[in-house]
């Protein structure tokens, strides 16, 4: 912040007035005047220091409250993280430890704990093997049990920590997560940087004090430990301390109660430094006194008028600052030292006010985007609900989550991801209406609160916001296009309180993401579905190692020759807890939990192992495996495919990797690069579900694909006289014109088969030919088919 420029002095300055005054004073009057000036100066300094100490105490209270609130908000973000809740619910200790460590690093936490619902320590990062941790955390858990969350201080490893405790809900409470900041040197230095005076955290230790942390030099800190007067400061008295040759004005106040012992914040203002200007002035006045005996009387009047009044104004201003009033500045008269001091005081007052305003803003707003935070938005939502209840109106919550944002972070870095979030915030800020509230919930989730909006109006606004984000933009010479999934919940249809409404909008958003739709309104029963997803995600982590996955194989028939040329490997999961779980349900969960990479590699390896002898015996020519969107941007995929082909002695041309049109278009550049590497190895590539995406033919021509698969939605009712036949004919012609094989899936009737044959389709698969079969049953089916075509 720029401070006021000191103007050049004109006329007789402050020092000149003192010289002139001393020439007019008598010796006796001068001695009395010197005593009055000295007492007044020291009193003014002490009053000013006292007011600064009280202001600093208020700053501590604001800093402590802000730190506790921000700490609780940060811990709440972790507790609400979907993957963390799942890990806590399934007691996945490794994942929990990584999450606690990563989140603790992001918020500069000194300690992180995961506690069982009963208080037992499951994971501890910071105070290692402290047997008293459970007992020290017990009071905070009692408060959190009563109020839903708690902040306070606990003694861990004999050190005090400011801790925030938040329950982990999935959806019932499965654990407590706590993170904290150490009352140590770092916090003391940070506080000293704000208030400009030395700080010590102390405890009463009988006749002396126990110093927990201090910004004093080491010699003064050692003297503080031995000072009996310091114990009086802890008892509540403001005292002067002599510490290793330096003099301090000490003021102490309670910081926190730790295990029955009171931790005090002791502020130490350097009296020597504060009184030094006045001591120098006194010496100068004494030197001039010998030359000013005859005019001392006149000088006393000048000093009384020219010195006492400005000091009083400074003291009054200090009291106003102590009361939290920063708006009224001191009047500045003249251009002497007192005028400079008044300007400096005004600058200090303005900076303290702005600092408090920044602290209040940071406590309720997101630092990256400047948008309101979750806690602030929750309070606004509750007020909107109250107004809607009073006037019989609706209000709505939209939760917007960016698709593929993790891929942006992973591939381009977190700094680039932050820049993307800033652009998203700016676009949304320009798109929301004046009475709407836009907030950032954390990560890539944003919140929009709508006044007087029912479900239909809220969905329309959500679609408009999604369209705003879909327009590509350039950032650091990179073209970025974003999609978003938006969940909608409306008061009073879906909930009657802010927390439940927010949670159900969040559930609707996850459902929208799983169903690959842009906007979805919360539906009754989604809570149970969400709970099922949480449970499935928990057991999905162990499904591979427990061998719960199996492959089924569905043949592809070459139409002109009626031979079985390829077989598609289809993954199935039978869970002991949930029975048969369809791929449409568990594949999105695997993508969200990061398990899809391991699952895809398992399918590739198992499919090649099963198909290797079939290919070697001439039973089939190749096997097809589906890839997910995350697989296609996996930089290690090509090396893994090459390794498994060599391990199972399968020619690369016998492996067909199927990717959906939508998958390729999500990140065209990365997908194209990986597809070229795979094609360079000799692996065949197929565009699955052709016709359901939104890509252009020019984009498809740039991809190294060998075949396209017409989606079953166009094939199933070919004989019903609708427009599907026109679409299929166009797809076949496009594929052939591009030099590609054309495969039709979902063939379930002889009429559809006949039409496809007449249109020149190359291959077909579907229930008319065969349902997906286990490996042994597939081999038996092939043997029967070679003797004569078999249906179903």
Any overview of this molecule?
It is a single chain. With 792 residues, the chain is an alpha+beta fold. Among the domains are: 81-182, Beta-Lactamase (2-Layer Sandwich), CATH 3.30.450; 374-524, 2-Layer Sandwich (Alpha-Beta Plaits), CATH 3.30.70; 549-787, Alpha-Beta Barrel (TIM Barrel), CATH 3.20.20.450. The chain is 51% helix and 22% strand. An eight-stranded mixed β-barrel has the order 18-19-21-22-23-24-25-26, surrounded by four helices. The chain has a five-stranded antiparallel beta sheet with strand order 2-1-5-4-3, with helices on both faces. A five-stranded antiparallel beta sheet has the order 7-6-10-9-8. Strand 18 and strand 19 (563-575) form a beta hairpin. Helix 2 (27-80) packs antiparallel against helix 9 (271-289), helix 2 runs parallel beside helix 10 (296-322) and helix 3 packs across helix 17 (526-540).
Major sheet strand order? 18-19-21-22-23-24-25-26
Per the CATH scheme, the topology name of the domain at 549-787 is TIM Barrel
Number of strands: 26
On the 0 to 100 scale, the average pLDDT is 80
> Uncertain segments of ≥5 residues (pLDDT<50)?
1-9
Biggest β-sheet description = 8 strands, mixed, barrel
- Quaternary form: single chain
Question: Can you tell me the CATH class of the domain at 549-787?
Answer: Alpha Beta
């Amino acid at each position: 912040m720029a401070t006021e420029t000191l103007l050049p002095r004109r006329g007789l300055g402050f020092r000149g007035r003192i010289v002139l005054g001393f020439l007019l004073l008598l010796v006796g009057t001068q001695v009395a005047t010197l005593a009055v000036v000295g007492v007044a100066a020291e009193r003014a300094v002490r009053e000013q220091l006292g007011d600064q100490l009280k202001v600093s105490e208020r700053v501590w209270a604001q800093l402590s409250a802000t730190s506790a609130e921000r700490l609780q908000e940060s811990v709440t973000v972790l507790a609400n993280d979907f993957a963390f809740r799942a890990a806590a619910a399934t007691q996945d200790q490794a994942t929990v430890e990584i999450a606690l460590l990563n989140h603790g690093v992001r918020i500069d936490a000194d300690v992180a704990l995961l506690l069982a619902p009963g208080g037992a320590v499951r994971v501890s990062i910071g105070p290692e093997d402290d047997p008293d941790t459970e007992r020290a955390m017990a009071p905070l858990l009692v408060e959190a049990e009563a109020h839903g969350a708690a902040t306070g201080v606990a003694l861990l490893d004999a050190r005090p920590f400011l801790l925030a405790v938040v329950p982990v809900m999935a959806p019932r409470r499965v654990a407590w997560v706590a993170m904290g900041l150490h009352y140590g040197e770092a916090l003391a230095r940070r506080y000293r940087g704000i208030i400009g005076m030395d700080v010590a955290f102390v405890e009463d230790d009988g006749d002396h004090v126990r110093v927990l942390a201090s910004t004093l030099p080491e010699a003064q800190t050692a003297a503080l430990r031995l000072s009996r007067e310091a114990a009086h400061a802890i008892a509540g008295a403001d005292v002067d301390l002599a510490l290793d040759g330096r003099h301090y004005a000490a003021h102490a106040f309670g910081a926190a109660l730790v295990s029955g012992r009171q931790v005090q914040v002791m502020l130490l203002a350097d009296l020597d430094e504060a009184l030094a200007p006045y001591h120098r002035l006194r010496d100068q006045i004494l030197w001039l006194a010998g030359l000013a005996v005859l005019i001392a009387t006149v000088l006393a009047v000048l000093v009384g008028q020219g010195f006492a009044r400005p000091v009083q104004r400074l003291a009054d201003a200090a009291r106003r600052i102590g009361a939290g009033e920063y708006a009224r500045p001191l009047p500045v008269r003249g251009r002497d030292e007192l005028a400079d001091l008044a300007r400096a005081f005004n600058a200090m007052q303005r900076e303290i006010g702005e600092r408090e305003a920044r602290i209040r803003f940071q406590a309720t707003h997101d630092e990256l985007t400047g948008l309101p935070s979750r806690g602030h938005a929750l309070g606004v939502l509750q007020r909107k609900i109250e107004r809607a209840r009073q006037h019989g109106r609706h209000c709505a919550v939209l939760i917007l989550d960016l698709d593929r944002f993790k891929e942006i972070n992973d591939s381009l870095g977190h700094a680039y991801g932050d820049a993307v979030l800033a652009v998203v915030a700016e676009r949304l800020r320009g798109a929301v209406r004046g009475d709407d509230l836009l907030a950032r919930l954390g990560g890539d989730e944003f919140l929009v609160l709508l006044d007087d909006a029912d479900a239909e109006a809220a969905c329309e606004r959500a679609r408009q916001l999604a369209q705003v984000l879909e327009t590509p933009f350039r950032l650091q010479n990179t073209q970025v296009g974003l999609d978003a999934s938006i969940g909608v919940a409306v008061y009073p249809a879906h909930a009657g309180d802010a927390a439940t409404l927010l949670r159900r909008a969040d559930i609707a958003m996850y459902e929208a993401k799983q169903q690959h739709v842009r906007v979805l309104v919360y539906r009754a029963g989604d809570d149970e579905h969400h709970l099922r997803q949480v449970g499935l995600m928990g057991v999905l982590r162990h499904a591979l190692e427990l061998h719960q996955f199996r492959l089924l194989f569905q043949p592809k028939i070459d139409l002109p020759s009626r031979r079985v040329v390829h077989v598609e490997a289809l993954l199935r999961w039978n869970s002991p807890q949930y029975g048969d779980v369809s791929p449409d349900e568990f594949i999105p969960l695997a993508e969200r939990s990061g398990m899809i990479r391991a699952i895809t590699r398992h399918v590739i390896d198992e499919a090649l192992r099963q198909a290797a002898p079939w290919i070697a015996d001439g039973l089939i020519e190749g096997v097809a495996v589906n890839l997910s969107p995350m697989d296609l941007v996996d930089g290690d995929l090509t090396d893994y495919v090459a390794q498994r082909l060599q391990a199972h002695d399968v020619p690369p041309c016998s492996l067909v990797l199927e990717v959906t049109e939508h998958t390729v278009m999500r990140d065209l550049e990365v997908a194209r690069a990986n597809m070229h590497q795979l094609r360079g190895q000799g692996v065949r590539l197929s565009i699955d579900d052709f016709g359901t995406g939104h890509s252009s033919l020019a984009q498809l021509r740039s991809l190294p694909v060998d075949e396209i698969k017409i989606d079953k939605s166009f094939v199933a009712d070919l004989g019903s006289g609708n427009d599907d036949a026109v679409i299929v004919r166009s797809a076949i012609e496009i594929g052939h014109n591009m030099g590609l094989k054309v495969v039709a899936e979902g063939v379930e009737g002889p009429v559809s088969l006949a039409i496809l044959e007449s249109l020149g389709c190359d291959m077909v698969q579907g229930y008319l030919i065969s349902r997906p079969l286990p490996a042994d049953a597939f081999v038996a089916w092939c043997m029967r088919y070679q003797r004569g075509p078999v249906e179903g």
